[in-house]
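Subject: Re: docking follow-up (pyridoxal-5'-phosphate)

Dear J.,

Thanks for your patience while I sorted out the input files. As discussed at Tuesday's group meeting, I've set up the holo structure prediction with pyridoxal-5'-phosphate included as the bound ligand rather than trying to dock it afterwards. The sequence and the ligand SMILES I used are pasted below, so you can double-check that they match what you have on your end before we go further.
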Amino acid sequence: MNLVQARQRPAPTGIAGLSEAVVDLSAVKDNVRTFRRLTPHDVMAVVKADAFGHGAVPVARAALDAGATWLGVARADEALQLRAAGLTAPLLTWLYDAAELMLLGDMDVDVSVSTVAELQRVASVPAVKNVHLKLDTGLHRAGSTPDQWIELTRAAAHHEALGALVVRGIWSHLSHGDAPDAVQSRKQLQLLRTGVVLARRAGLNPSTIHLANSAGAITLDAPDCDVIRIGAGLYGIDETGIGLRPAMRLMSKAFQIRRIGAGEGVSYGHDFTAERDTTVLLVPLGYADGIPRVAVEQASVLCRGVRMPVVGRIAMDQFVVDAGDVPVDPGEPVTIFGDGSHGEPTAKDWADWAGTIPHEIYCGIGTRVPRRYEEATR
Ligand SMILES: *Cc1c(COP(=O)(O)O)cnc(C)c1O
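The structure tokens for the complex came back this morning:
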């Protein structure tokens, strides 16, 4: 057994190494089921960026088990990774290079197309079959501009008639998916509808219309869409308060513990000085592992059931917490974040402390932190 295999083997008790990110796949499954219960749509599990740091392959498998029917990723290499792992579900990628098209086609990956030039490149690669034409309905990132849409759909119909490709989907992406009033989303839906009508008029017959992300799936009523693209929601980032469960728990162990006297400083520059005698413990995670340096003013962790503040600068590999007079032994488990059910902070708390969103916290958990998978039975 090599080292990598050894590290991925679940520990019988506690943590095998110093730190680990434990991903509860039953939370991912529950989250998929929540979207399926609350909406009439098929679910595309968006597992880009290694499933927001959770691990693309295990998360994709769990999501499909729970009834998702599509997979979506940003980049070509992410799509190929899923295919290499043996996942055969319909799979869409929207950021790829022309040089990657042959491989994508060979692996039966659907690709997004926004311009006639892209369409021609795709049509010239015989292996690529299914495309999703993307219409820019207001986000102003990728997508065809509305005034080029008719030309794009006509060109696509031409290539389809020649057997070069199939327009399987038409899609767009929301700019204000989490806005409860859905004013902008409804405008975008209206534009997409018009785009679909024009595409049909050009002779296309797309089977998969999709617009909403996790938040938009809840805020926007879009009965004419077939699929919702669920990223954040899979991981329990609950932007619309529908009772999703955070899937990741970031754990470490107290590495060293020491008593310091009043007036003594901690970590680089002694930004923190103890006001009274206290116990500080060293947590072996740092900004290289995704612990945001800027969170230090407000951050805390859970150890022995007690919230302990982070004190002193967060370094690359380690940070320090103030345990006060709580008795702590070396090796004591420390919860950096979890679902909050035991009084620990959540990834959302860390995001608030760092002035960002939980997406960035999850994506930032570094490759030095092994992922371990569990499925809690409830
Ligand atoms: C990331 C992404 C999604 C998923 O959005 P969430 O808000 O994370 O659910 C959907 N569609 C596209 C195009 C994306 O880039």
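A couple of observations from a first look. Confidence is low (pLDDT under 50) at residues 1-13. The first strand starts at residue 20 and ends at 24.

Let me know if you'd like me to rerun anything.

Best regards,
T.
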